[in-house]
Each structure stands twice: as structure tokens, then as C-alpha cells.
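May I ask for whichever protein you like with its C-alpha cells?
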Amino acid sequence: MLRSRLAVFIGALLFVSPSYAARCGGNFNTFIQSFSQEAAAAGISQNVISSALGGVQQDGGVLAFDRRQRYTFNKTFEQYVATRVGPGRINGGRAMLQRHAALLSRIEQQYAVPRQILVAIWGLETDFGKGDMGKLPVFRVLATLAHDCRRTELFQGELLAALKIVQRGDLALNDMIGAYAGEIGQTQFLPSSYIKYGVDFDGNGHVDLRHSVADVLASTANLLHTNGFKMGAPYGEGTANFEAMREWNRAVIYRKTIGYFADQLVGR
């Protein structure tokens, strides 16, 4: 399930990132040393840097996966949605709407994003937190992709953001496990989105997008709200809300699937 979204996600990333001095390519350990100096200059503690990057190695499987992405869907919407939104997932989503009704009401009031959209995204990404959130060490993935010269500035930015997540105490180092581009948690946030949109909605002092359903759903709502999603307005293709979901995923077919799933959850 992660891979179908990731193929689009990697190819569609249009990201304006700051310039980083660590030179891509060449000796991997030299690159890590250079990047570590940059991270320290950006305020990351030596303890976090050494814990996260000490002994980190390249992952050839990540590079191979990255190289073979074709960046486009080869299915029609009807074919694709049939593989992602079946009766089991719809029933599961409806159960989540009931189980978390009070929480979702609070999130709707604060962020003005309808609950069915949030639950649809949650279900599509990781089966409501019960499915695959990725099994790869985030720092190994991001260091590998940052060293690669194809999108080094993008992934150097993501690597720095991942260090910030640990430094803030949001996730422990052993919880920094994710997918093939470093996505983390129940709705698969990139580290930069984690920092930018993450919300401590359960009030425990940490933004925990792996374990806290409240933080997961509120952070997802915050991302959409910040990008212009409006409660009560339609979200089908061609609408302003559909465009607001581009920050989540730029693929039209994926956003149509979110909308279709959301409608199924509320019986439309």
C-alpha cells in the first residue's frame, strides 16, 4: 500500500529547499561528517547527531527502489480505487468514525476539515495505523538519499528535519522507522511536514505521529487547513478543496480516491 503512493510521491515532489554545503556523491562517510557539521551549526546537539548518524550506512535497496519508480499510475481511477477502497476498509473506516467521534468533533471545530476526509487518508495510508508504516530506519534512508546527487538538497532538508524530531523529543531514535523516502507515522508525514504541521493534540508535550491517534488526525487536519481546505465546501475534482489536497498528494487519481473513500464512509 505504501508503494503505490510512494511512486507518485517521490516523482511529484516539488520542494524549494535551502542550500546545504554538504557535497553529494563521493565518499559517504565524508558526506556524513560534512552534513553533521551543518546540523550542529543549525542547532542540533552533538548527542543527537552522533546517536542518529554515528555508524549510519548507505542502503542500496533504497537507491534501487528510488531508481525504478516510474512516477505515474498505469491504472484508470476505477481500477485503482477498486484495489484501495473495498468493503472491509469502508467498514473499518466507519468503525473509526464511531470510535473517535468525540476526538474528530474537536478536530473539526479547530481545523475545519471534515472527519471523513481525515479517516479516509488514515485508512489509505496505513489502514488506520494497523497496517504498514514502513520498516526502514529513517536516518539510513534519508542519509542515503541525501548523499545521492539526484535530489540532495531536498533530502538534506528532510534529514535535518528528522534530527529535529528527535531533538524535540517527539520520537525516540528507535521509533524513527519509516518508508522508502523517510515518511513517518500513521499518515506518513515526511520529516519536514512533521515539523511544519505536527500538532500535540493530546497535550502530552510531544508530537507523536506513530502512537497518538489524536496527534495523527489533528496534524493531518492542520496540514489540510493550512493549505486552504474549507469545511462544508465540496472536495471533488476541480474544486478548491481538491486543490488544497495537493499538499498531501499531487496525483489527481490519489486525491479522487480520498474523496471517493470519504463519501463511502458517510454513505454518499
Q: What stands out?
A: The chain has a mean pLDDT of 92. DSSP finds 14 helices and two strands in the chain. The beta strands are 136-137, 177-178. The radius of gyration is 19 Å.
